[in-house]
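HOLO CASE FILE
Compound: manganese (II) ion
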Amino acid sequence: MSDIVFFDTTLRDGEQSPGAAMSLADKLRIAQLLAEMGVDVIEAGFPVSSPQQAAAVREIAAALASREVTVCALARAHSADIEAAAAALADGARTRIHTFIATSDIHIAAKFSTPRFGATLAERRASVLRMAADAVRQARTHTDDVEFSAEDAGRADHGFLCDVVCAAVEAGATTINLPDTTGYCTPASYAALFEATRGCCDLSGVTLSTHCHDDLGLAVANTLAGIEAGARQVEVTLNGLGERAGNAALEEVAMALRVRADHYGLAHALDATRLGEASRLVSVVTGFPVAPNKAIVGDNAFAHEAGIHQHGVLKDRHTYEIMRAEDVGASAEQIRLGRHSGRHGLFARLERLGIDVAEDQRDAVYERFTALADKKKEIYDADLTYIADPAATASAETPAYQLIGLQVTTGTAEPPSAEVTLLDSTSGQVRVETAQGHGPVDAVYRAIDAACGRPHQLEQYSIRALTAAADSLGEAVVVVSDGSALAQGRAADSDIVRASAEAYVHALNGLDADDHAEGDFVQQGIMASFGSAPAW
Ligand code: MN
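Model generated. Tokens follow.
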């Protein structure tokens, strides 16, 4: 039995990180993993905000209907929002509607400035109270599990916060969340919110909840302070993903409660051994790297560098370790696989990483592994995540464009130039274009632009090394738009220019896929560089 309700909002608040948009397939994978880990509530999206958000909530609610987990949809305190949330949750089994309204004076002044909400602060606060209660009542007509959030509670007047909380509870809210929406609170001031609220009205049967942002680096500290002050639900995200500086990290809150059970005395049922896998999945899907020194899930979180530390740990690991790497799904042994590791070694390692490869996919995965092992001396866990990515093994429809040749020249004497050979599979034509650019990638992209000739805009480009070696796989993530839709392409290769080219072509193919809806977000690619690509 858990004393703490883990409410994960990676798919809602996390997805609101600039550049962190996720495809529906990725959201489903994350939701499945969260459910397997034992997360209690998954906030799957904000249905009224877009058809894609509504679809994500609908599919996740349906996919998880046979599990213990509750699927939650966000709604402003508006009638249409609540109906959209209820409709999206219709195929779910355990469902929650989460409604919210601004409660700090600064938010009320800015958001409720039209005359219909009143002329004075007191009148506008009265409007907020009424809307909060109406929204909760309406949500209760659809489900018995209704959460109310007092937006920007961290900066709200305590007296008014009391009024709003009591109105929401009176109307039937079963969870009351006090978000520090702007990351303004200190642990003491955040705890004081809960102390103040608990004295306002009868809260028996109501769960109090934290929701902390990391603008001052205090999200986890504030979450724990909220728990000490009586909160029994925590709203968190994997890797601390979220608006601006992010939310409180699920893995950090979970392990703080477990390692310091002596202090908190509160149990939870999360399977922490899946944390490493969950963190990697979110990082791969969003293209946001995890800092090596990130607590719990960073690559260095369990690495001992200083000789004196290494010596101590070899004698007794408790000298410098407060938890074990294997308890959080980090690889205790950084064994590196190479070309001499056979099938058995590869699949045993994948299994320990929590990556399940279906029997009929194993040949393809092993083939990609040997192709990469031929290019690289050592293969790291981060590489394996890519090798085994199911998106890579899924048989893709014939893409509009295929990169069949690439030649790049760069150096100190001449501006970088590129020659690109692109197959347009619609017309069957092969186009060869050359271009110069400010760097090799720019030259390649200009040549690809000339070859495909379709109007589009490059919205985002990033490249990162997956491991710390000169022969590391470079992962390129590219987002392009055509004015109505966005498409993301990803590719990884030990040749970073080639990875960049593949990712760009994948993204363009995403724009060209005619089954995507206006405003849609399409993801393509990833693994074209291993084995399946033409040998050039
Ligand atoms: Mn938030």
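CASE NOTES: DSSP finds 18 helices and 15 strands in the chain. Residues 514-519, 525-536 have pLDDT under 50 and may be disordered.
CLOSED: yes
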